[in-house]
Amino acid sequence: MTTANDLDWWRDAVVYQVYIRSFADGNGDGVGDIAGLRGKLDHLARLGVDAIWINPWYPSPLADGGYDVADYRAINPAFGDTAQAEALLAEAHERGLKVLLDIVPNHHSDRHEWFRQARAAAPGSPERERYVFRPGRGPDGAEPPNNWESMFGGPAWERVTEADGTPGEWYLHLFDVSQPDVNWNSAEVRDDFETTLRFWFDRGVDGFRIDVANSMIKQDGLPDLVEGVNDEQDGKHPYLDRDEVHEIYRSWRRIADSYDPPRVFVAEAWVPDPERLARYLRPDELQTAFSFNFLRAAWLAPDLKDNIAEAIAENDAVGAPATWVLSNHDVARHLSRLARTPESGRGYWLDDLVGRPADFDLGLRRARAATLLMLALPGTAYLYQGEELGLPEAEDIPEDQLDDPTWVLSGHTKRGRDGCRVPLPWSGDTPPYGFSINAAPGRGGSWLPQPDAFAACTTERLEADPESILHLYRDALTIRRAHPALGVGGLRWKDSPEGTFAFSRDPGFTALVNVSSAPVSLPEDAEVMLASGPLTRYGSVPADTTVWLRNA
Description:
Elements: H1 4-8, E1 14-18, H2 34-39, H3 41-47, E2 51-54, H4 82-94, E3 98-103, H5 113-120, H6 126-129, E4 133-134, E5 157-161, E6 167-172, H7 187-202, E7 207-210, H8 245-257, E8 264-267, H9 274-278, E9 288-289, H10 292-296, H11 301-317, E10 323-325, H12 334-338, H13 350-353, H14 360-376, E11 380-384, H15 405-409, H16 459-463, H17 469-482, E12 492-494, E13 500-505, E14 509-514, E15 527-531, E16 545-550
Parallel strand pairs: 1-2, 1-11, 2-3, 3-7, 7-8, 8-9, 10-11
Antiparallel strand pairs: 4-6, 5-6, 12-13, 13-14, 14-16, 15-16
Helix pairs in contact: 7-8, 14-17
């Protein structure tokens, strides 16, 4: 029988993101896989999370880390097979862990069978109608159909050679050239994605994270972007946050609600306006969406407080929980971001950090404080693999080993996202730090090189240190699960010294966050439940520290 907890688990869940290529390698080939993940489920259960979200594990040439999907209803042989996936689902559920998958609805891989058919078919054919093909502009159609640019750099159009060998139409790729955008005006496209949802829901998957959820619909006529006119996502941008996308999500929600218990969605929608973002969370659409403004906020009290208050207010207006995140597979790890001098509107890519002085001890202190702040907030929280180990961004991967397409498409000017995707360190003092679990002698390794700094961050080493960040995560998640004030609910802001902010949650919980440069005194009669770092000898809260208090 479905209980209320089964229905509403997502409202206050802590979800752990698994970038499967880099989590754990179960067969010794240097690439993470389902066997490796199955072997580490106890680590995740002991950590205290409620669910895992697995980045794409589908067949893919991996031109964009698996977000170039060739078949949505199968498993990449490099990661395992469908039987192993079903075993993982069962083993996760036995441990009380829900499982979310990734779905990529904006584009396919150019290896997808449909795109192979489209390339071979004639202009105007049903096969091409599944994608966004258009004739070029200028003499002989030699210029792209419009001025749109790829998110990774360069033009968003690629010209094909027709079957007779002549230059032909162009296809749209808002991301890599190997990721042709699908045409959401096609009933065939809509039906196929709904079939994929049901395929995985029938196998016990609890929900999906929706990749680039705000960029599926394209404006009729595909007009040029006009500087100063299309700068905002206000419903008028030709391919971002179009109002028509909500019809798709209402259909998906009906499918999810047809299951017992209902399945869940979380939107990756980089929509800066919280009011526009909340539209994705209306009662008949998606349940949750990442609050990326929190991720982008500077480590300054006004910036953090304003972003938190705004996100909670806009989500409350549509009856949805806020969804907090500090790091993921697309941004520089927050420890390395926080190691730099804070500034409003700070960058979140590795390329935004290069050249800025870094203090990684300070970054770790702030990362610990940021985690306790996030886990004290009402709503859902997402953790990115390795943050519980205090991993920094790998900022010096050799250029000849960079894998992210951003590096090539930017003309070798942007290093991209590889630095946050480096395989995890589990044990030992030398690479691959236990990443390859069953490697034969002389085999193993890791598909991206691990920095020397990872030697101090292995799970094995942190297990032995009760003051480590790993134990902080476990302690915080234990308290969050047990304390009646944490999870769903609201908060009340409290007065606090300059450079700090504080809020209370009923019953009997207060969080105090000190982002100033000096210690501050604890409230009278406050009892410390947990602190992100040691307090001063006089019991004050040092700079860059968060404390959880009882009866404050």
